[in-house]
Amino acid sequence: MWVNCSSTNILFDCGEGTAKQLIKNKLDHNEIDSIIISHFHPDHVSGIFMVLQMFYLQKRKKPLNLYLPEKANEFKSILDMFYTFTSRFSFKVYFKLTKNVNADHKQIQPIPSDHMQSYADFVQKHSLANELLSYSFIISDAGKRILYTSDFLDIKIYNKYLKEMDIIIIDALHTEASDIIKFAGLTNARMILNHGLSEEMKNRLKISINKFEIADEELEISL
Ligand SMILES: [Zn+2]
Ligand SMILES: [Zn+2]
């Protein structure tokens, strides 16, 4: 998701095909200031390899902030492993943690989400280093507010924000459709369903479609 606010351009998440979409939509990569990854599921991060390679091949000059949910330094080593040596790029890449994004971008507030918690037992049992971190975001600019949930489990974590939002871009796949519909009834925000729809959601939408818009790859919204 490309967000333009206060003359800053930010990519939220970077799934497979992002580089292709940037080219297809004639979006100038030099305008991107930061890429923020919400969590380390491949559908949110696997596109970063090709995006960085494209920036490199196109001789990008502008520095790039890359915010990662956990293990920012290890992620740099993964890129090295794939011969994507960021230290040899024509532009500087700053590896940072998503939780600190507000220090550079005042308009973005990261909200820890529960999305990775279902792995907690497995990670503990096998003594893995995964930190189970995942984030949602509130983007505030010129008196308008967007909530981008990214993926989550329990919708209740957003209850305290929903009255203030103008747009809610919500993961419509991982949680109960009935909960999303109930949630939508509590807010006047535009509800954009993202991340594909569960079968249950598809069925429910036949009844309550008016309240929702469905995000597609090229949906463009102005506030
Ligand atoms: Zn996920
Ligand atoms: Zn996902």
Describe this entry's structure for a reader.
With 223 residues, the chain is α/β, with parallel strands linked by helices. It has a domain at 2-153: Ribonuclease Z/Hydroxyacylglutathione hydrolase-like (Metallo-beta-lactamase, Chain A), CATH 3.60.15. Helix content is 26%, strand content 23%. It has eight helices and eleven strands. The strands form two sheets. It has a six-stranded mixed sheet with strand order 6-7-8-9-10-11, with no helix packed on it. The protein has a five-stranded mixed sheet with strand order 1-2-3-4-5, covered by helices on one side. The chain is globular. The protein starts with a strand and ends in a 9-residue tail after the last strand. 30% of the residues are buried. The mean pLDDT is 93. Bound molecules: zinc ion (2 copies). The site of one zinc ion has 4 residues, from loops.
Summarize the structure.
Helices cover 26% and strands 23% of the residues. The protein has 223 residues and is of the alpha/beta class.
Structural class by sheet pairing and helices: alpha/beta
Identify the bound ligands.
Answer: zinc ion
Largest sheet descriptor: 6 strands, mixed
Helices and strands, in N-to-C order?
EEHEHHEHEHEHEEEHEHE
Keywords:
223 residues, five-stranded mixed beta sheet, six-stranded mixed beta sheet, alpha/beta, binds zinc ion
Q: What is the strand and helix layout of this fold?
A:
Blueprint: E1 2-5, E2 8-12, H1 18-24, E3 34-36, H2 42-45, H3 48-57, E4 64-68, H4 72-81, E5 93-97, H5 101-104, E6 108-112, H6 120-125, E7 135-141, E8 144-148, E9 167-171, H7 177-184, E10 190-194, H8 199-208, E11 212-214
Parallel strand pairs: 2-3, 3-4, 4-5, 8-9, 9-10, 10-11
Antiparallel strand pairs: 1-2, 6-7, 7-8
